[in-house]
Design a protein that fits this description.
Length: 104
């Protein structure tokens, strides 16, 4: 994994160990695939209003139920996103239920 950095006015990249980064985020390789899809990349934009930090928090909450295959993780994520987008009160309820706060 590569992360852009800026140090003393110079731009560069840090190369991160993938397994260490996943461990720190409490995610697995399948989760990373789904995270990349929903958070956007060089080829696709993300789901409006959900940045990578918020998505990682959502994934961590979903994973409290246990490890899920990619398809199930995506389904859980989309259910959370759809339900949280229905109404403001629903969003507030789900945020309280899931304990997630972040950039909306």
């Amino acid at each position: 994994m590569v992360r852009p950095i800026r140090h003393r006015g110079q731009y560069g990249f840090n190369v991160l160990d993938k397994s260490l980064a996943l461990r720190k985020m409490r995610l697995n390789a399948d989760d990373l695939v789904v995270l990349a899809v929903v958070s956007g990349n060089d080829y696709e934009s993300n789901i409006p209003g959900k940045a990578i930090v918020t998505n990682v928090k959502i994934f961590q909450k979903i994973k409290e139920k246990g490890d899920l295959p990619k398809e199930a993780m995506l389904k859980e994520y989309l259910q959370f996103w759809v339900y949280s987008s229905v109404t403001k009160s629903t969003t507030k309820y789900l945020s309280c239920t899931y304990g997630i706060s972040g950039h909306h």
